[in-house]
Specification:
Shape: globular
CATH superfamily of the largest domain: Peptidoglycan recognition protein-like
Structural class: alpha/beta
Number of strands: 8
CATH class of the largest domain: Alpha Beta
CATH architecture of the largest domain: 3-Layer(aba) Sandwich
CATH topology of the largest domain: Lysozyme-like
Strand content: 5-15%
Number of helices: 9
Helix content: 25-40%
Order of helices and strands: EHHEEEHEEEHEHHHHH
Radius of gyration: 21 Å
Length: 272
């Protein structure tokens, strides 16, 4: 994964604008759901509140003129664990699957946008990062067409880097907030997996990486506290260790921290 070429690829497709026939029904369903959301937002009703004795508390709705769309603050990267772009798109255009993402990037670099960035896709599921317990509500989800057992192509990675640069600039997303599905859901998910080139992303400003450690951590170094400080949910410490090692170490995938693992973690800990 080196010598990435940054060039413009006019491949971002908007389903509602240029949907092929098989997805016209999905486009209609999405449009109807957006209209439902707009109607809900337009109903400005003051809350009904009562005290502990059941007495009504006076309330009112007075509209403010200072507001905007909610903007994403994280990007979460996945692999599709499916065999083709078409298979993934079909999965995301069936209501019964209850899963989605904002973008899907094919093996050949084609970028398909499936939902506006300002809307909440269902890609992270039960997840946590730091104090954020609903990652769907604060993130953009990007799915990479990959079955989980194959390298990511240079063309696919090039498109991903271009898309990440756009998202980072548009929403001012912090460098540390480019993470993987396995990071935010360590008990359930491994993606984008050990073959994903996180260091390449970090070299371009998307996610943090470590320098070659020169000092061992102190004898009282608290692994659990350090993982939690980075963002990992340590409710299941073994799962958090595995997620950390998949992302940063990629070797010896056992839920036990070696001396090297602790050196890497200590180096990253000091960045937060």
């Amino acid at each position: 994964m080196k010598n990435f070429r940054f060039y413009y690829i006019p491949l971002i497709l908007f389903v509602s604008a240029c949907s092929p026939k098989p997805y016209q029904e999905a486009a209609k369903i999405q449009k109807d759901k957006v209209e439902d959301i707009k109607e809900e937002i337009a109903i400005n009703i003051a809350p009904v509140l009562t005290d502990s004795l059941g007495n009504s508390i006076p309330t009112a709705f007075i509209p403010t003129v200072n507001f905007s769309y909610r903007k994403p603050n994280f990007v979460i990267i996945h692999y599709t664990a499916q065999d083709s772009l078409a298979q993934t798109i079909r999965t995301f255009t069936l209501e019964r699957t209850q899963v989605s993402a904002h973008y899907v990037i094919s093996r050949n670099g084609e970028v398909v946008q499936m939902l506006n960035d300002d809307l909440r896709a269902w890609h992270a599921g039960l997840s946590k990062w730091g104090n954020n317990t609903d990652m769907n509500s604060c993130s953009v989800g990007i799915e990479l067409d990959n079955n989980g057992n194959e390298p990511f192509s240079e063309t696919q990675m090039n498109s991903l880097l271009i898309l990440l640069a756009k998202l980072k600039a548009e929403y001012n997303i912090p460098t540390a907030n480019f993470i993987g599905h396995g990071d935010v859901a360590p008990r359930r998910k491994p993606d984008p997996g050990i073959l994903f080139p996180w260091k390449t992303l970090a070299d371009h400003g998307f996610g943090l990486w470590y320098e070659l450690p020169t000092l061992a951590p102190p004898a009282d170094f608290d692994v659990e506290n350090a993982l939690r400080r980075i963002g990992y949910d340590t409710g299941d410490l073994s799962a958090a260790i595995l997620a950390f090692k998949r992302h940063f170490v990629k070797l010896d995938l056992n839920p036990v921290m070696t001396d090297w693992d602790k050196c890497v973690l200590f180096n990253l800990y000091k960045k937060y």
